Each structure stands twice: as structure tokens, then as C-alpha cells.
Amino acid sequence: MKHVPDIQSERALGPDRRVVRDGGDGTLNELDENALEAALSIAETAGDAEVVVLTVGPQDAVDAVRKGLQMGADEAVHVVDDAIAGSDVIGTARVLAAAVTHLGSVDLVVTGMAGLDGLTSLLPTALAQLLDVPALPLAAELTVEGTTVRVRRNLDHATEVLEATLPALVSVTDQANEPRYPNFKGIMAARKKQVTTLTLADLGVDASSVGAAGARTEVLEAAARPPRENRVLLTDEGDAGLRLAAYLVEHKLV
């Protein structure tokens, strides 16, 4: 579960050409709520399963897993280390893979389809590769029967059903479910649940393989989007739709 800057707030890159994340407006990545809802539903059906929420990030990223505990997760793990700052997708996946391995026997890893800060959708498959487990990405429906996980994927012109034997990794879309809201009982219960904090040393991860030092990508330059020019503004006097359609046809935009 990722802690991301609020997408409704002013976004910016700092002098280090990284997303500014210390504005105090961070929030839980909404797409990860679908992942947690899927995990909780599976655990409730199985009856004897345990749900652990995991995040990697600075100190305030703990808010993401605390929200997960309020929603019903059993345990929470927060990997925090200054050396992680500046990690790209591969570096983040490397830390997550080490954390999942550190947890012990994990049958199913469930992630959101993307982080709303970067929107690359690359992390789930990178994580699956590092864990050496099957990846079933972009699931609109997820079920587990025995040791088999089955997902339905909605493609542009078809529906696809994939199956794999556990352990496996699944990323879910926002079509998969409607995440539950933390209720008063869940919020109170979460206060008694501990968040385990781990460092790179705890996970046996070389600091030089993550963070800016281990990143395979680098932002060389960034600039604010220039203001729009040559805009055409239409005052609606009842015929704006017709005038807009005529404009699009005239400029061969349809």
C-alpha cells in the first residue's frame, strides 16, 4: 500500500528533480484500497488466512498501513530507510521483494494496478519477477480456490481468464470491487495493532542497489507546463454544441 501525494494538491518536482512528498498532504494510494479489499474478501472466505499490509517510504508513509489496519488488515509492515529515497520502480520492487521474503510463507501478493504518483503500472510484474512467482496483472475479478488463483481481465475487445498455482502475485483494477470504509470498531481495533518497522539492514538489501545510487532511470530536466495559447472560447447561447462540432470538423479533429 503506497503513500502518495494528494493528486488534488499542487504537484511539483524539487531541486533534486524528484516529486515533492513532504507537503503534509499525502494520502493512501486509492488503487491500493482495491487490492486490500480483494485480500480481505479472500481472507474472510478462507477463514484461516492472515492479511499483512506492507509499504515502503519515509516516516509519514506509515499512515498508509495504518489505514490498512483500520480497514481490517491483521498486521502492518513499514520499510523505512534514508537510502531508499530516489528509488525507481526496480529499486522499489527490490525492497518490496526482500520484505515479502522476510515475512516468510506468503501465498498471495495483491497490489493495486498503479501508483497515482507515477502511473507506470510496472511495479507488480517487476515484483513478481524478483519473487519468482506467476504474475496475473490488471484483474477485474479475483478468486482463490484451494491452491489455485483465478482472475478475469477486461481487455479492449475481449475478456481473458488466467489461472496460476499459489504462490502468485495479482494486481487488481478499480473494477475489482468497492473498498470498504473503516468503521468505528475497525478504527479502535487498529490502535492496538503494531506496525513493524524494518530497515534495509534488516532485509539484507545493499543500499547501493536501491535509491538514487541504484536507479536505472534519471530525470535530467523538468519544467512547468507552459500556459495554453491560441485558445478558442465559446459562449454558449444555446448553439455551442453545434459550433463546437463545426470547429472540430473544420480542423479535421473528427
Automatic annotation (TrEMBL):
Q: Which residues form the Electron transfer flavoprotein alpha/beta-subunit N-terminal domain?
A: 16-207
**Entry keyword set:** Electron transport, Transport
Concerning InterPro entries, the annotation shows: ETF_a/b_N, ETF_b, ETF_beta_N, Rossmann-like_a/b/a_fold
Does this UniProt record's set of keywords contain Ligase? Answer: no
What GO molecular function annotations does the UniProt record carry, in alphabetical order?
Answer: electron transfer activity
Q: Where is this region: Disordered?
A: 1-25
Indicate, by first and last residue, each region the UniProt record lists as having compositional bias (Basic and acidic residues): 1-24
Q: Which GO terms describe its cellular component?
A: cytosol
Q: Which cofactor does it need?
A: FAD
- Indicate the quaternary assembly: Heterodimer of an alpha and a beta subunit.
Provide the family line: Belongs to the ETF beta-subunit/FixA family.
**So what does this one do?**
The electron transfer flavoprotein serves as a specific electron acceptor for other dehydrogenases. It transfers the electrons to the main respiratory chain via ETF-ubiquinone oxidoreductase (ETF dehydrogenase).
Protein name per UniProt: Electron transfer flavoprotein subunit beta
The species is: Cellulomonas chitinilytica
